[in-house]
Design a protein that fits this description.
176 residues, single chain, 5-stranded antiparallel β-sheet, 0% helix, mainly beta
Length: 176
């Protein structure tokens, strides 16, 4: 018998910066999930992604209830079933043009509301001209962190063959 488990995984206040030629130039649109303004809306310029659970089990919207800076944040809420769902993950992503050799800096404030094995991640995924992954790197909040946590990726450059990067804010959880 499956046992239903509901958890609000993470509230995300994103301030992502990619330094591409200009030090600390913000190349991510709507970095703080401020547009459109209001609760439970689809944030402009961000796309949702998920592996498991299925679409009806994941909600990715804006939230005015909790935010780090500004007036709102992005929120991911997931419903899962124990016993059959493994490697649950969902997130917000945004693609930007990046060239090989560009210095990369990304940062975000993330807040988990579930401390039961949930991981919050900031990830940069480098893509080639065909959209294939060249490389990826990420920073992960400590497991069980339920307060605002600053994550940062720095000191790297876009690898050879890169024409774009997807900046992802992810949550994942493995159920046993």
């Amino acid at each position: 018998m499956k046992k239903a488990l509901f958890f609000s995984l993470v509230l995300i206040g994103a301030m992502i910066i990619a330094a591409t030629g200009v030090a600390n130039a913000n190349v991510v649109a709507n970095p703080g999930f401020e547009n459109p303004m209001g609760d439970n809306l689809d944030p402009e310029n961000w796309f949702g992604m998920r592996a498991n659970p299925n679409a009806p089990d994941v909600e990715m919207k804006t939230s005015t209830a909790q935010h780090y800076a500004g007036l709102q944040s992005g929120r991911i809420t997931m419903t899962a079933y124990t016993g059959s769902d493994f490697n649950l993950w969902a997130g917000f992503g945004q693609s930007v043009n990046v060239s090989a050799g560009d210095p990369i800096f990304a940062s975000a404030w993330l807040k988990c509301t579930d401390d039961y094995g949930t991981n919050a991640k900031l990830q940069v995924e480098f893509k080639d001209i065909n959209g294939a992954e060249v490389a990826k790197t990420y920073a992960t909040a400590p497991n069980g962190t339920i307060d605002w946590t600053y994550l940062q990726i720095s000191g790297i450059t876009a690898p050879v063959g890169t024409v774009s990067a997807i900046y992802n804010l992810l949550v994942d959880k493995t159920l046993v």
